[in-house]
Write a structure and sequence with these properties.
single chain, 3 strands, 3 helices, alpha+beta
């Protein structure tokens, strides 16, 4: 699990089962039609972002996907009142809403 903190203060919480650098490169690739929430933020806010804006929050190793998704939802829920949280714009963020 990882977080993205933009220079403007925007925050995004994410998870991936792949190498983190792969996911970071997807977020920072703003020349694609399939922009991520982070990429959309970078373009719309004209922010400067780089790999240093990302950090590992928790490593799950080979644990099941469901544990990563559940913990991600817990951390997002912890920040849900933060007006700079980008996850509220993320259409995939709602899949575990029944827990909260």
């Amino acid at each position: 699990m990882y977080s993205f903190t933009c220079v403007c203060g925007a925050l995004y919480i994410g998870e991936t089962g792949r190498l983190l650098i792969t996911r970071i490169n997807e977020h920072l690739n703003i020349r694609t039609k399939n922009l991520t929430v982070v990429g959309t933020h970078i373009i719309n806010s004209q922010c400067q972002a780089n790999k240093n804006c990302f950090k590992i929050v928790k490593s799950f190793g080979d644990q099941p996907f469901q544990k990563r998704k559940f913990y991600e939802k817990v951390v997002i829920n912890k920040h849900k009142h933060n007006p700079s949280l980008l996850n509220v714009q993320d259409k995939y963020c709602t899949e575990l809403d029944f827990w909260f």
